[in-house]
TrEMBL record:
InterPro entries: FAD/NAD-bd_sf, GDP_dissociation_inhibitor, Rab_escort, RAE1_2_domI_C. The gene is Chm. GO terms for biological process: intracellular protein transport; small GTPase-mediated signal transduction; vesicle-mediated transport. Transmembrane segments: none annotated. Residues 79-157, 574-607 are annotated as: Disordered. This is RAE1 geranylgeranyltransferase. Residues 402-530 form the RAE1/2 domain. Belongs to the Rab GDI family. Pfam families: RAE1_2_domI_C. Residues 96-113 have a biased composition (Basic and acidic residues). The lineage of its organism: Eukaryota, Metazoa, Chordata, Craniata, Vertebrata. It is found in: Cytoplasm, Cytosol. GO terms for cellular component: cytosol; nucleus; Rab-protein geranylgeranyltransferase complex. The keyword Transferase applies. Signal peptide: none annotated.
Length: 607
């Protein structure tokens, strides 16, 4: 790939159109270079790797505005103008190559090319300032997570009339968009936040609070009170309901201490357990779909109680909701780890395909890879994202799928006094057996979309194609008609300018022994899972690390610059033009990683 992060990446608008075109083309890449087979010795065998990423399927994109007006529009800041292409719902748009900048080898966070809008500080959103060492940063020990600070607009200033957004404007301002392939939020006390703080990778990122939790009930979107202050200030709950809700949430915080309250319902679903509690139907709906966010038909009572407790424990650490969102998109997170790795000698090679793994027949261990140049790269360990594995290696694997949709809209699903809201909404399934749909709506102050627009992500486990799974929810919440076709009842709904649907492979939970013939020193990591948080990825990374280096500390805090020891021989080698690493110990071992579409060569046994 020519961008970081694999299926965790984020793109500008034109970058996403290029990605869509690439995935709509089903042609297999022919192996033009067979010379690499000559590099395999008699006592070795090769495990060929897949030539095409097959983790994305059923890609469909639609434009609900006048596309003809955007034919000759060039994206602002894009130099030079690149060839145009035609695609379903994306005809005649200027193409932009995806993020290509290498990680910055410095202590200052630096956005990759295409990640930060070219004029992000020139009026994209005057209400947001996201600055380092902000007084609004929240500390944990001596580490901080930088939070964007939102300043209120004085009420006496009359708001200007909202500008009419057109598709050509979206194309022109495409670099203001940072559109994630995977939609997730960070639990404020989740494993990823703890890891970012512990490893000090948080220095490379800034975050914004998710400002509200929403519910969809009886055809309407409404805000869910979840913190103590929200509950008591809520006008939608009666005084009796407030007492009921607070009593139940207090029980959930230490439910383990009261097993007699739930042990008779351990074999029941959480929804059935809620019906036995003194809760009104509206409270049951809020707890099930907006607080616990678990399945109505599949999640057990214990799973529901655990999810509710996790939600409540995360409240108040950084704001009134349990969630944070990284400015410039979820795709910033893998790049943050790339930057830290680069500081300590990690080398990332983009646009660098790998042909095969080379296995020693005697030991059964993998000893090298062969790249598309026919070059052998030797290493002791190999980490491979599962999209690299060929079909012959994965014959025993049954993958799940994730249905995804991304929309660009003109207003929020629930308008309030403040336009700068980051919202999460769970839409319950209409038909039994169908999954609930998670909707995350991002405003322009998250640096993921242009001003006066919203970026909306929809996600659910797949039962059919992404469009079949998600379009009914889109039709409930949004107006898909053009302005001329809009009926009166659709006027209040947010209007969709552009949408894309696609299915993404969910390979989480697949054990290594399901893959055929992989050596013991080859480790497989999955792509994103369908969960809202990132715990699965963090657990998987730590598990692989501990298998490789038992007893070592996972992602320790980096040493102070004055404590780093530079090996004189390696400095000499660097001056001779050889690749080398930055060490804190004189002993080193070579490690080769291919993860998420990027190739990493690390020559440091600590970092």
């Amino acid at each position: 790939r020519n961008y970081y992060g694999g299926n965790w990446a984020s793109f500008s608008f034109s970058g996403l159109l290029s990605w869509i075109k690439e995935n709509q083309q089903k042609t297999d890449i022919s192996d033009e270079r067979e010379d690499w087979r000559k590099l395999i010795l008699e006592n070795e065998e090769a495990i060929p790797l897949s030539k095409k990423d097959k983790t994305i399927q059923h890609v469909e994109d639609f434009c609900f505005d006048d596309q003809d007006s955007a034919e000759d529009v060039e994206e602002a800041g894009a130099l030079p103008k690149l060839p145009t292409f035609g695609a379903s719902g994306a005809g005649g748009l200027a193409q932009e190559s995806e993020k290509e900048s290498p990680p910055a080898e410095s202590q200052e966070p630096e956005k990759a090319a295409g990640s930060e809008p070219a004029s992000a500080m020139e009026g994209n959103d005057p209400e947001i300032t996201a600055e380092k060492e902000s007084s609004h940063s929240s500390a944990f020990g001596e580490s901080t997570l930088e939070l964007g600070k939102t300043e209120a607009v004085p009420s006496e200033i009359s708001a200007p009339e909202p500008k009419k957004i057109t598709y050509s404007q979206i194309v022109r301002e495409g670099r203001r968009f940072n559109i994630d392939l995977v939609s997730k939020l960070l639990y404020s006390r989740g494993l990823l936040i703890d890891l970012l703080i512990k490893s000090n990778v948080s220095r490379y990122a800034e975050f914004k609070n998710a400002t509200r939790i929403l519910a969809f009930r009886e055809g309407k979107v409404e805000q869910v009170p979840c913190s103590r202050a929200d509950v008591f200030n809520s006008r939608q709950l009666t005084m009796v309901e407030k007492r009921m809700l607070m009593k139940f949430l207090t029980f959930c915080l230490d439910y383990e201490q009261h097993p007699d309250e739930y042990q008779d319902y351990e074999n029941s679903t959480f929804a059935q357990f809620l019906r036995t509690q003194k809760l009104t139907p509206s409270l049951q709906h809020f707890i099930l779909h907006s607080i616990a966010m678990v399945s109505e038909t599949e999640s057990s009572t214990l799973e529901g109680l655990q999810a509710t407790k996790k939600f409540l424990q995360c409240l108040g650490r950084y704001g009134n909701t349990p969630f944070l969102f990284p400015l410039y998109g979820q795709g910033e997170i893998p790049q943050c780890f790339c930057r830290m790795c680069a500081v300590f000698g990690g080398i990332y090679c983009l646009r660098h395909p790998v042909q095969c793994l080379v296995v020693d027949k005697e030991s059964g261990r993998c000893k090298a890879i062969v790249d598309h140049f026919g070059q052998r790269i030797s290493a002791n360990y190999f980490i491979v994202e599962d999209s690299y594995l060929s079909e012959s290696t994965c014959t025993n694997v049954s993958y799940r799928q994730i249905s995804r949709a991304v929309l660009i809209t003109d207003q929020s699903v629930l308008n309030t006094d403040s336009e700068q809201q980051v919202s999460i909404l769970t839409v319950p399934p209409v038909d039994p057996g169908k999954p609930a749909v998670c909707v995350i709506e991002l405003c322009s102050s998250t640096m993921t979309c242009m001003k006066d627009t919203y970026l909306v992500h929809l996600t659910c486990p797949s039962t059919k194609t992404a469009r079949e799974d998600l379009e009914p929810v889109v039709q409930k919440l949004f107006n898909l008609n053009t302005e001329k076709e809009t009926e009166n009842e659709e006027l209040e709904k947010p209007r969709v300018f552009w949408a894309v649907y696609f299915n993404m492979r969910d390979s989480s939970g697949v054990e290594k022994n399901f893959y055929n013939g992989l050596p013991s020193n080859v480790y497989v990591c999955s792509g994103p899972d369908s969960a809202l948080g990132n715990d699965c990825a963090v657990k998987q990374a730590e598990t692989i690390f501990q298998e490789m280096f038992p007893g070592e500390d996972f992602c320790p805090a980096p040493p102070n610059p004055e404590d780093i020891i530079y090996d004189e021989e390696e400095i000499a080698a660097e001056e001779s033009g050889f690749s080398n690493s930055l060490e804190t110990k004189p002993e080193s071992s070579t490690e080769e990683c291919s993860s998420g579409g990027d190739t990493t060569v690390k020559e440091d046994n600590e970092e």
